[in-house]
Structure prediction request, 462 residues.
Amino acid sequence: QLHFLAGFYAQWYAHIRASLDERYGGDIIGAFRRLQDAGYIEILTSAATHGYLPLLARDSSIHGQLATGVRSYVRYFGRRPRAIWLPECAYRPAYYVDGPQGRWRKPGLEEFLAEQRLGLFFCETHAIEGGTPIGKAREGVIGPYGEVPKRYLVPIAGYTEPTRRTTYRPYYVAGTEVAVMGRNNPTSMQVWSADWGYPGDGDYREFHKKDGVSGMQYWRVTGPRLDLGQKDLYHPDWAEYKAHQHARHFAGLVEQLLTEYARDNQGDYGIIVSMYDTELFGHWWFEGILWIREVLRNLAASETVELTTASDYLTAHPPEDVLALPESSWGAGGTHFTWDNPDTHWMWEPIHQAETRMEALVARYPEAEGPARDILNQAARELLLLQASDWPFLVTTGQARAYAIERFQGHLERFEELARALEAGTPEALAAGAELAGRYHALDNPFPDVDYRDFTERERRI
Prediction:
């Protein structure tokens, strides 16, 4: 069986490589662009580095994350995005703050989205339905999110009365024409659940057991909560059969839920939004990509369900109700805990200080040219990279704690070095800063069209 599995993997990887080189010409993004241009899919934008927006202190940084993300989207896809994936489904409503210059209003995230002409975002189930968090934000899940409740006693978002709202409908977020859709829990947990989701089936490939020499995964899940030493060898044909079975089950569940919703709501045309991390498919759940293919084939043949994109649905069925959305995320407990807890809280003060410092630099160099502009743009890149939500996430989950801290501190140190050169402002300091910027650009150069002026101070602007 091991000899067979080695041959299976050789053929599988050869097929993947041939697809990349021959079918897609080495351009995966271009392949997705063609699918979107043909109307088959909708590609969402996101914050530039998946920054955790509710925990950023300055409106300039929220704007900078979003503006840079939208600009990158346009560069790759040749059109403006219609909708956005808010990192970690993390949402912040408007609120008031008191400071030395009085009291002022901090806008809700939907107002930043409206400014970018983004008409739709997505949130966690309990943010729409009310009550305590459920599903992904509460239960054991596969993948790195499942590590958080194993390491911490996670506080749960405060109970609120059920709202009588539903994830089968979109809603306008109070005060704007930006809409929100919520994660459908029954369908989403068919994949997310670590206890009863499809990926835990005994015939699927075991993720955690790897060959000590090759690193290859030759075993199957076999059974729940078995020691890795008790895992049986993997049978790809068994797994393929289960993927087809589970795809049919999922498609049937979607049909059932939408039929029941229409029956109970005077024929209302509901939508199901099943939200997952991409890395679940093919990585944590090896057969997940095959499952997606079969789900789409089953639903495409359905006489009950229509496949659509979120924005197309929104155009055809605009919201009829307005919702005051609470602060929330799809992290453990439905709060910001996964990204701000006793092990990560120290990271946020340096981020906030860098945000304010960047605003001061923009004010000093409002229309920089030459070396100063190069330094400022690289400083903006380092700030964006410093704000990446992956760093506190990896510290919290314990997956790559040392690496995350190293990357975080590295981007902080680079930002501070560039800021010092700009603050000194002498020809010698700017020359040295430009050399540093060039060196750092060679190491990390995302966002070739980054514009440091996106980080102009903008408190009280919206």
In short: The longest helix spans residues 236-264. The beta strands are 45-46, 84-85, 95-99, 102-106, 120-123, 171-173, 179-182, 322-323. The radius of gyration is 24 Å.
